Amino acid sequence: MTRHFLVDTDLSPDEQKTVLDLAERMKADRWSEKPLAGPQSVAVIFDKTSTRTRFSFGVGISDLGGNPLIVNPGESQLGHKESIADTAHVLSRMVSTIVWRTFEQAGLEEMAENSTVPVINALSDDYHPCQILADLLTVRESFGRTEGLTLAYVGDAANNMAHSYLLGGVTAGMNVRIAGPKGYLPREDILVSARSRAEETGGSVLVTEDVDAALDGADVVVTDTWISMGQEDETEQRRKIFAPYGVTGESMAKAKNSAIFMHCLPAFRGFEVTSEVIDGPSSVVWDEAENRLHAQKALMTWLLETSRAGKERR
Question: Which of 51, 83, 141, 192 reaches 20 to 30 Å from 135, CA-CA?
Fold first, then answer.
């Protein structure tokens, strides 16, 4: 009965709404919930470097009355001298939640299969679901809703952000448009899953190489870095391929006048987005960054309460 959050669709549409409602309440009254009082400890494991994930989870766990145990690369036996499954069994005896920022989605799945406490995907090569919860909270703050709005993601459409925007966006009832060059588009299995979820919520999916088609009349414009961790050797090639997908003032003019701009950060100004946009009146990137804290606090609270309630019913 333990609930995990490994991919955006691990939350049903109603559950996602419940988490976002809770995030709004917790943001308004930051120290109102203490599900980790004790303090209980949370393992926060990093295989990749981080700024927002590290601070938002560390601060958030403390806000919830808990103790964040930050584990940096090479500081544990995980994946080296000890298997993921064995690590999950050990950590489940000591901590209340496991948060892992890693490479392979399969590792997170193995951790969850062997854990009796919630496991949270803090980023993998395939998905970034915690970022999407923060982004949806930011959209709500800007428009009062997510349902029926159009989100246009432009750039590297084969990365974890594009995948999670598809799945998390349609779960929130949004019309999600993804634009990227040929060879850098979402995986077919993710499109199938996104279209299936869209049928439940009234959202929709459009994948195109035409950046103008994606931006036309959009409510939300989003991009991400063109060079993710491990792709540094492809920098010049990628900058040439993705150049037509950079977000500029001209790009934003194709969206609605009321459109907002989001970026999960860090941003490489002058490449995927210009300073004119990221520092401009449409940008909500700093609210978006702060909302990692509030959305993740709500997620941890909901997972803990739901998992505990499930165990009590057994």
Answer: 192
Q: d(Cα 87, Cα 107) in Å, to the nearest integer?
A: 11
HSE at residue 77, side-chain half, CA atoms within 13 A, is: 9
| Structure confidence by residue, pLDDT tens digits, 175-233 | 999 999 999 999 999 999 999 999 999 999 999 999 999 999 999 999 999 987 666 77
At 46-55, the pLDDT tens digits run: 999 899 999 9
Q: Which two tokens stand for residue 312?
A: 């009590």
Alpha carbon distance 302, 295 (integer Å)? 11
Task: Quote the pTM value.
Answer: 0.96
State the DSSP code for 234: G
Exposed/middle/buried for residue 76 (C-beta within 10 Å: 0-12, 13-18, 19+) = middle
Structure tokens at 49: 């470097």
Take residue 269 and report the two structure tokens written for it. 């100004």
Task: Sort strands 67-71 and 41-46 into parallel, antiparallel or unpaired.
Answer: parallel
Instruction: Note whether 118 and 4 are within 8 A (CB).
Output: yes
Look-up of token digits 């919630």: 118
Residue 307 identity = S
CB 56 within 8 A of CB 296: yes
Query: Going edge to edge, which strands form the sheet with 97-101?
Result: 67-71, 41-46, 97-101, 119-123
Helix or strand run (H / E) with residue 135:
helix 129-143
User: What residues are annotated to the active site?
Assistant: 101, 128, 131, 224, 264, 292
Q: Are 122 and 5 in contact (CB under 8 A)?
A: no
